[in-house]
Amino acid sequence: MKNLIACCGLNCGQCEARIATLNNDDDLRKYAAEVWSKQFETTIPFETINCTGCREEGVKMGHCASCQVRNCVQTKGYNTCADCSELDTCKIVAQVHQYSQVALSNLKSLQN
Length: 112
Hints:
mainly alpha
């Protein structure tokens, strides 16, 4: 489903936070909290892992709700970064794409 592609191109349909939220799965929340805390060198309480997806109605995790990419897309009135002519040169979304080339590919697929 194209609505599950986040503004930056990440696939919310595969995100542990969304899956845990929809299934009310605390074990998955705890797993995601552990993995993400190590990955991002911070502490993420498992109770905060609640998100329905970047472009879906409902709750957003803290970093998703305040995401610079999401805020930029919404300010410009776009659906995703795929709608922006600056996609290939944007320094904001490049921060995501440096870690996930799949996210960029997802956005490119929305342009066709």
